[in-house]
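hey
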C-alpha cells in the first residue's frame, strides 16, 4: 500500500518505460514510411481509430473498476479481521476463567493464525503479475515480509513445539489453527472454566474468522476473469497500433513538417491507455506482493500489539513502517 500523497512521476515513468520504448517505435515506423518514403496510402481515416478507442476506453474503465472493487473488498476483509481479533482477545480474557497460561495460549495461537494466513495469501499464483520485469524491478523500493521471512521461524514465536509440528504438517495451516482454538475452548468448557453462553460466543468469533479467511481465499484463488483481461489487452494494443496511422492525415492537414508530430502525440495518447491497463493489472490481485497490496504484515502486527497489550505485556513489538512510502 502506498502511504504517500501520490506516486512520483519519475517512478511511474520508470515503471512504464518499456511500454514507452515500444510506443515510440510503433509511432516512428509508420511516420517515417509516410513522410520519407512517400507511402501516403498507409494512412487510415480517423473514424475507425476513434471507434476502437471508444471501445478500448470502455473496457479499460470496466477492468479498472472491477480491479478496484477486488482491492477494496480485500481491505474490508482485513478490516473485519482486525475488529474480530480485538473482540476475540477481549472475550478470551474476560470469559475464560483459567490461569494466565491458558489465556496466553489463545492469544498467541491467534497471532499464529494471522501469520499463517498472510503467508498463504502471499503464495504466488500463475495468473499474478509479480514475475513481470517492471514489477520485479520496483520491488527494490520495498520488502515483502512473507518472502523475506520463514513461516517455520515465525510460528515458533507463538506455538509450542508440538503444535508447531502439527500445524506445519497440514496443507492449510490457518484452517488448522482455528480448529486448534476450537478444540482448546471446548476443553475449557468441559472443565467448567467457560460458561455455556460464553463458549457459544467464542465459537461464533472463530466462525467469523473462518468466514474472513474464506473471503480472502476466494479473492486469492479466483483471478479477475481471464477473458476480460485478455480482451482488455487486445483492445488497448489494437488502438496503439492503429493510432499513428490515423493521426498521419490529421497532422498532414497542418503542413508536411507537422506530420512528425504524429510521433509524440501518438506516444502520449497510447501511453495513457497502456498505463491505465497496467494500473488495473497491478491492482487486480491484492495479495500478490505488489506495491499496491493490502498491508497484511502491518495489520497483523497492529493486532498482535493490541492483543499483547491486553495481556499487560511490556515488551511489545514495534509497528511496521513503510519503506519508500510502501507499507506491506
Amino acid at each position: 500500500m502506498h502511504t504517500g500523497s501520490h506516486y512520483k512521476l519519475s517512478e511511474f515513468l520508470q515503471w512504464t518505460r518499456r511500454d514507452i520504448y515500444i510506443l515510440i517505435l510503433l509511432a516512428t515506423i509508420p511516420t517515417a514510411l509516410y513522410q520519407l518514403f512517400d507511402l501516403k496510402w498507409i494512412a487510415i481515416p480517423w473514424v475507425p481509430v476513434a471507434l476502437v478507442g471508444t471501445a478500448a476506453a470502455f473496457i479499460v474503465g470496466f477492468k479498472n473498476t472491477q480491479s478496484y472493487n477486488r482491492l477494496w473488498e480485500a481491505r474490508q476483509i482485513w478490516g473485519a479481521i482486525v475488529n474480530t481479533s480485538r473482540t476475540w482477545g477481549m472475550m478470551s480474557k474476560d470469559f475464560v476463567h483459567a490461569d494466565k497460561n491458558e489465556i496466553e495460549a489463545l492469544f498467541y495461537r491467534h497471532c499464529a493464525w494471522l501469520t499463517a494466513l498472510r503467508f498463504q495469501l502471499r503464495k504466488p499464483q500463475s495468473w499474478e503479475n509479480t514475475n513481470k520485469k517492471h514489477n520485479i524491478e520496483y520491488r527494490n523500493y520495498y520488502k515483502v515480509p512473507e518472502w523475506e521471512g520463514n513461516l517455520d521461524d515465525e510460528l515458533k514465536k507463538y506455538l509450542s513445539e508440538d503444535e508447531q509440528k502439527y500445524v506445519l504438517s497440514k496443507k492449510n495451516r490457518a484452517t488448522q489453527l482455528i480448529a486448534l482454538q476450537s478444540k482448546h475452548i471446548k476443553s475449557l468448557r468441559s472443565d467448567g472454566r467457560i460458561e455455556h453462553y460464553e463458549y457459544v460466543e467464542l465459537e461464533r468469533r472463530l466462525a467469523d474468522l473462518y468466514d474472513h479467511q474464506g473471503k480472502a481465499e476466494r479473492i486469492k484463488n479466483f483471478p479477475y476473469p481471464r477473458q476480460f483481461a485478455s480482451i482488455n489487452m487486445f483492445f488497448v494494443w489494437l488502438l496503439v497500433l492503429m493510432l499513428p496511422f490515423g493521426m498521419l492525415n490529421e497532422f498532414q492537414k497542418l503542413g508536411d513538417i507537422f506530420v512528425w508530430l504524429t510521433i509524440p502525440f501518438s506516444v502520449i495518447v497510447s501511453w495513457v491507455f497502456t498505463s491505465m491497463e497496467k494500473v488495473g493489472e497491478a491492482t487486480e490481485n491484492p495479495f500478490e506482493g505488489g506495491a499496491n497490496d493490502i498491508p497484511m504484515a502491518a495489520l497483523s502486527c497492529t493486532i498482535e500489539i493490541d492483543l499483547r497489550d491486553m495481556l499487560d505485556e511490556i515488551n511489545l513489538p514495534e509497528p511496521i513502517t513503510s519503506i519508500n512510502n510502501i507499507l506491506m
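The CA atoms of residues 286 and 293 lie 5 Å apart. The chain is about 70% helix and 0% strand.
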